[in-house]
Amino acid sequence: MLVIQNLYKQFGSLVAVNDFNLTVKLGETVVLMGPSGCGKSTTIRTINRLVEPSRGRVMLNGANILAMEPDELRDVRKRIGFVFQHFNLIGRLTTLENVMLGLVMGGTDRETAECKATEALTKVGLENHLAHRPDQLSGGQQQRVGIARALAYEPELMLWDEPTASLDPILVREVLVVMEELARYRASTMIVVTHELTFALRVADRIVLMDKGSIVEEGQPSEVFVKPVSDIGRQYQELIEYQMNTQAQSLAGKR
Ligand SMILES: Nc1ncnc2c1ncn2[C@@H]1O[C@H](COP(=O)(O)OP(=O)(O)OP(=O)(O)O)[C@@H](O)[C@H]1O
Predict the structure, then answer these.
(1) Cross-strand partners of 209
(2) Cα-to-centroid distance, 23 and ligand 1 (Å)
(3) Between the chain's N and C termini, which has fewer beta carbons within 10 Å?
(4) Does residue 243 fall inside a structural domain?
(5) What mean pLDDT comes out for the span 213-234?
(6) ipTM topping 0.95
(7) Is residue 116 over pLDDT 80?
(8) Alpha carbon distances (Å) from 35 to 27, 181, 238
(9) What's the domain range around 195?
(10) Residue-level pLDDT at 214
């Protein structure tokens, strides 16, 4: 279980995350949404201290990540997968080597690392691309390598920071399909920052809406998007209605 208590982050005079509290159950998928600049990325990055929060507690299975010494932090980070918007693959390494690299650097022997990396790449449907280099892959495939890199650690918690944001719409789908499968399989607890409404509607167990650094609303998609209680929630509701109406009208026009 992940328990985030009073998480707070200030950049100079700007409060980016303002007393954020959230409890995430094992295997749950929480989607964090909100307007640009409301603090989603900063929140998710403070969980494993890619960004050092100003104060708060992040308890993963009872241990406070924010109070950990470097050695302990390094160990706990092996149990937390992070998928970024930019895949940051190493161009001269193959797909397999890119996924193996972190494991080997973390002390896993090469044979075990190769086994785990192959298994992770198979989970994301890239078992036939092990020897390819990043420039031989599409953006969607490159992001799937990024996902496999996180999965290879068999993480108990996966943090996703806008994993589809740098992909064109056709490639977005292939990444969302992989994410959806992972969420349904409940292999790990997932916190996903995304603007992908369809994914949020279909896959999230819980939606957390943020505005100006604070949580303004949370609940199941059917609550937040159907009976919103916040302005941000109402804006998403209108957007969903608009998209559904537009699609219905264009379908009707084609008949
Ligand atoms: N390293 C930093 N130094 C100073 N200010 C920062 C830093 N990182 C983020 N901020 C500011 O903190 C606020 C929250 O940023 P954050 O990236 O967390 O928002 P976000 O909701 O993820 O936005 P987006 O959806 O556009 O990615 C913004 O005002 C941003 O400019």
Answers:
(1) 33, 217
(2) 23
(3) C
(4) no
(5) 95
(6) yes
(7) yes
(8) 26, 27, 14
(9) 2-221
(10) 96
End-to-end Cα, the chain, rounded Å:
50
Are the CB atoms for 33 and 194 separated by under 8 Å?
Answer: yes
| Ligand 1 pocket test, candidate residues 31, 33, 42, 54, most atoms within 8 A of CB | 42
pLDDT above 70 (res 31): yes
Residue 150 confidence (pLDDT) above 70: yes
- Whether 69 maps to a domain, the answer reads yes
**Are the beta carbons of 123 and 151 closer than 8 angstroms?**
yes
Q: Report the pLDDT value the prediction gives residue 109, as an integer from 0 to 100.
A: 95
Closest by Cα among 10, 66, 43, 1 to 193: 43
Instruction: Give the total number of structural domains in the chain.
Output: 1
Testing ligand 1's pocket by substitution, the residue of 17, 31, 38 carrying the most ligand atoms inside 8 A of its CB is 38
Count of residues in the chain? 255
Report the CATH number that the domain containing residue 190 is assigned in CATH.
3.40.50.300
Give yes or no for a contact between 29 and 196, defined as CB atoms under 8 angstroms apart: no
Is the pTM higher than 0.95? The answer reads no
Which residue is it, tokens 């399989």? Answer: 185
Residues in the ligand 1 pocket, defined by CB under 6 Å: 11, 14, 16, 34, 36-42
- What's the mean pLDDT in 231-251? 89
Tell me, rounded to whole angstroms, the distance of Cα 242 from its chain centroid.
26
Q: Which of 9, 191, 206 is nearest to 82 (CA)?
A: 191
Which of 32-41, 45-54, 117-126, 242-251 shows the lowest per-residue confidence on average (mean pLDDT)? 242-251
Query: Who contacts 105 (Cβ-Cβ below 8 Å, separation ≥6)?
Result: none
